[in-house]
Amino acid sequence: NSRDTLSAREKSAPESSLPLSVSLIVKSKSLERVLFHAEETHAQILQMSEENQPPLPAMKASKSATVKMHKKAANAAKKKPDLDGIALLELGVKAMDLKEYDKALPLFEEAYKTCMESTKVEMVKREKTEGGGEKNVNTTKKNTKETTTEKEQHQKDACEEAVKLILNKPGELLAKKKEIDAKLPNYAKNSEENMKRHMENTGGKYRTRFPPEPNGYLHIGHAKAMYFDFGVARLNKGETYLRFDDTNPTAEKQEYIDSIKDSCKWLGHEPTKITYSSDYFDRLYELAIQLIKSGGAYVCHQTKTETARSRSLLREFQEKCAKSGVENRYEVELPEGAASPYRERSVEENLELFEKMRSGQCEEGECSLRMKGDLRSDITSMWDLAAYRVKKAEHPRTGSKWCIYPTYDYTHNIVDSLENITHSLCTLEFETRQAPNGPYYWLLDKLNVYKPSTWEFSRCNITYNVMSKRKLNLLVTQGLVNGWDDPRMLTINGMRRRGYTPTSVNSFCAKMGVTRNENVQPLERLENEIRAELSVDSNRFFAVLDPLKVEIVNYPKDRAAELLMDAPFHPSFMEERGMRKIQLTETVFIDRNDFREVDDPSFFGLSVNKKVRLLFAYDITCTGITKNPVTGVIESVQCEIDMDSRANKPPKGKLHWANTEFKTAEVRVYDKLFAVPVPGKVVEEGEGGEVVPEATALVAADEEEEEEEEDANEDAAKQKSLKELELEHPWLKQLNPDSLVVYKNALVEPMLIENHADQPYSARVELQRLGFFTFDFDSTKAKPVLNRIVTLKESNTKKK
Description:
This protein is of the alpha/beta class and 800 residues long. It is 34% helix and 18% strand.
């Protein structure tokens, strides 16, 4: 609606009512305009409150109340995505980022109310089709001609919307579009000279980077990051570098590098250039010398215990200032011991000591080069992070040239600058590091080099899984899973081995979008992507996992032609894909769980004196059973066949089956890795379908943890027993004991084994009534092995 219409509505409203927050903006309107109206409206609301309402005593909004309301408003926006409410939600997030909770709380309250009361927003629900699939049904009277394809295209434009509405354009001098207190320093401003050199290097193109550490295998969270990194550049005909952050020689292996390259290629991403942080070790060292000379770094001999004590005193200082309402912390003296006693060393002494570190005269852990940040900052990563540490280990690429290595916090922003990256896109745990007054920009400002634009998005967390590299490593090293490519884990290698396709993974990433809202995505959403793809692409076959012999006592041997059954490869594509022949033999096999000795009204399988239909064949009725005389286990059942039944309406029970010509195979039925949606966390069901952690961290608590401390923790973990680890990490007790069930003597159609058993992933097929499967790389024609990719239908686990 136009502003005139908005003004007319405001004039016709009762004097006591608030002005309309913003008129409904349909899809064609820009979100920027919505935000403009929302900001204008918020100002009007505040003005009316000041002019027409008696003054009220000021009440401070607590952080916990604001976070709780933010979560509630975010869920409402997902459930009923009214654009007015979304705009107010964004304003609230800005205020909360600045810790202005008094402003953020009413914005979240208004956003929640706007979304929940909205009746004008176009809502789309899912409705089952006759074929078992899903179709989009428009529940509004407007835009009824919009097709499913158009809706899907709109969904896939999430990356494009981020480029249009969120990210800086190349050439903008202000590298970080985030408001901070005017009293705080803003290091995220480029000089015109540095920006001119940068633009000459890139030609004005977008240039992003995907910077994994080569110390492990990639998982689906990295797939999301790659989709965004490569997608932003591709949309703008730009470039993406694949950069290996190889600054820790003791943790990096060539197998990880090879695996990352392979995963990147499998997902369809082609980097413009492959680089390594180690390519820049010489330049990084030169810049460290420059930093020391400018007074921005010093050599520190504090032990880990002493450093921890200093940081504890700094936290106490921050808490004391916050409780006492101190406005300017720079006027308050730091407690004794909060700063390193080596912080005020002279430039000459620091240069001499750093040279001793470089020449191997210092031992590991004896000292480090620290960046001289801001100890009064409320950003903990400004508290003098390490820039270099001693590691007397050979590097896979530089050999024994160096015995000191730069840290991630010193390296990644400088290399971003050296490579002229236009957009450094990271997950939210780096948000405070990359704040305008954070260490990312502080260091680049101190060195007077080009400053890339940064933007952070939420991590990809998925129910019934863990994404932490440390947790995944623990599962692998303790033998709780079968390696990094275990199909139960959402590593890229694990998903490939399970049978996921790159298109299904990328489609999931596209629909998930790139937002700043912390959430846990339901595993079902990922499974639905591959399920929707395979339900069309996969041919269908029979297999019996746990065979139970069925003897047809009245088998008509003289009617062999009538017992050669036609079965379609796909019922929806019979003309294109054709039919296959399956002989109904005198002895057939059904799955053991399709038979019960004692029948039940809710059971549609075979039972004594009960009739079922063998799929694409005839009705059979159970007339007897044979049990093992010792164990009492049913060994076979006897049935009579009705050769006239094909013309009749089939019974409710329709069973898949195998004949005596079927081949034996091993079938691995994979399920959820964990028995609870969010391992180790108490969760509540989000209104929008996501599982929302009960406590969401807005700011990383201990950002100053160093790599050497991580290495020590990993080494300690290897020395503990599984019971000790379970006490320390309760989430290990929540592993699903039935996440893998192996059927060693399954029966599979011969055609499937002959054509694909020795060609892993060459075919993804539907084993009827069982799920979608593919052959594992362990498979051979002599010993076929199939993995279940996903079930035929979405499992009912959301409420569990």
